[in-house]
Amino acid sequence: QALQRLDSHPLVDWLPADPGNQLLAYSLIDALRLLHNPPPGTALNLLAEGEHPAQQRLAAEELVAHHLSLLRLRQRIQRQSAPQLGADRVATEQFLGQLPFSLTGAQQRVAEEISANISQPIPMLRLVQGDVGSGKTVVAALAAVQAIANGRQAALMAPTEILAEQHRVNFEAWLKPLGIRIAWLTGKLKGKGREVQLAAIADGSAQIIIGTHALFQEGVEFHDLGLTIIDEQHRFGVHQ
Questions:
Q1: 238 pLDDT higher than 80
Q2: What pLDDT, on a 0 to 100 scale, did the predictor assign at position 131?
Q3: Strand residues in the chain grouped as ranges (E)
Q4: What Å distances lie between residue 117 and 35, 152, 198, CA to CA?
Q5: Burial, 102: exposed, middle or buried (Cβ in 10 Å; 0-12, 13-18, 19+)?
Q6: Which of 16, 82, 111, 150 is the most buried (most CB within 10 A)?
Q7: Sign of the alpha-carbon torsion through 134, 131, 138, 174
Q8: Is 204's pLDDT higher than 80?
Q9: Tell me, what's the pLDDT at 36?
């Protein structure tokens, strides 16, 4: 029935057929008809392997639609404004000077790209990807230092309390010598301890806030949040 409706309700074909292009050898309607009702002589081995040009035509449709939707989303986000967190050479050199190690070339390059991004008046959307132990955390700390040097707060959210605790230990070792004040917020933190942390977050005395998804629960009010860092973002929901 669906195939019959194509006769009276033709689909708009945004990618016209192009016999010289393997991905566009079929029109959209011809590809749908072949795949759902293969005529005699169709190369069934190609269909079984997912390599038939009609299948590739639908794959091309999905990929183009995916890229265009992401592009539209990025354009919509970049129409929003964001605080300009300009580079602060003094704060950066103080941070790097008290580290017990030197940054690798890759860390320096990524840190400079992030610094340039957050200096702009539009939101940054950046995924930092690397192996375990490649030094993503110190790059995140550098970005947080830049936000704090501009008078803003930074938040670091991790999916588990163990991972959040590891970040807190690292950030305290790196940032406390600079006089940067750190708040800690997880679901297990209750009572007076939680009230103290919430007050520090709200009045701005906490400059970087580290925790789990408790960071975006009801009742958490940031004073002036300028940078959000999410660790292992694939373990959070899209809307989270």
A1: no
A2: 87
A3: 153-157, 182-185, 208-211, 225-230
A4: 45, 16, 29
A5: exposed
A6: 111
A7: negative
A8: yes
A9: 93
Q: Return d(Cα 161, Cα 163) in angstroms, integer.
A: 5
Q: Judging by beta carbons within 10 Å of its beta carbon (0-12, 13-18, 19+), is residue 156 exposed, middle or buried?
A: buried
Are the beta carbons of 86 and 140 closer than 8 angstroms? no
- 105: helix, coil or strand? helix
Task: Give SS3 for 228.
Answer: strand
Q: E strands of 113-236, at which residues?
A: 153-157, 182-185, 208-211, 225-230
Q: In percent, how much of the chain has pLDDT > 70?
A: 100
Mean pLDDT of 127-137: 89
Looking at residue 212, what is its pLDDT? 94
Q: Which two tokens stand for residue 223?
A: 């004073």
CA angle 185, 191, 196 (to 5 degrees): 55
